[in-house]
């Protein structure tokens, strides 16, 4: 018997409901894939965007940009994946979507597996004055 998935948290649902239809399709597809790939993760809206956490550490999230939806992996630069682009001055990497049809579920699931196994400690970055340490 298949395990029933947990309902979408109210704050994440409200985030989706505020988007245009095309963006909702992208975010719904990403939500489904992330929830499937990281069922143990805590998910909530953090800094105004849906984010998944493992043991309090942010690992993946998505948010609407002006022209696309960005899926961000906090430790993604360490994944050694061609499909992810570096983002920011730390270890994050991203992929951007303008259509739900662009989402390659196999890639997303592989990246999610890597985000479980490869983590930098963003949870304590402020305490360490901007210095990241590798957790896994």
Notes on the protein architecture:
The chain is of the alpha+beta class. The protein has a single domain, classed as Aspartate Aminotransferase, domain 1 (Alpha-Beta Complex). Helix content is 28%, strand content 23%. The protein is built from three helices and six strands. It has helices at residues 10-17, 21-37, 105-117, and strands at 42-46, 49-54, 57-64, 69-73, 85-86, 93-97. A six-stranded antiparallel β-sheet has the order 1-2-3-4-6-5, with helices on one face. A hairpin with a 6-residue loop joins β5 (85-86) and β6 (93-97). The chain starts with 9 loop residues before the first helix and ends in a 19-residue tail after the last helix.
Provide keyphrases for this structure.
3 helices; globular; alpha+beta; 6 strands; 136 residues; Aspartate Aminotransferase, domain 1
């Amino acid at each position: 018997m298949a395990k029933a998935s947990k309902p979408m948290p109210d704050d994440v649902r409200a985030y989706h409901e505020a988007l245009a239809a095309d963006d909702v399709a992208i975010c719904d597809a990403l939500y489904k894939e992330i929830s499937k790939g990281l069922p143990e993760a805590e998910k909530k809206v953090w800094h105004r965007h849906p984010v998944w956490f493992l043991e309090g550490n942010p690992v993946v999230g998505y948010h609407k940009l002006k022209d696309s939806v960005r899926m961000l992996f906090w430790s993604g630069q360490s994944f050694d994946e061609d499909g992810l682009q570096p983002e920011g001055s730390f270890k994050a990497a991203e992929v951007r979507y303008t259509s739900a049809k662009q989402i390659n579920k196999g890639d997303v699931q592989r990246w999610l597996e890597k985000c479980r196994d490869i983590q930098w400690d963003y949870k304590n970055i402020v305490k360490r004055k901007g210095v990241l340490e590798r957790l896994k």
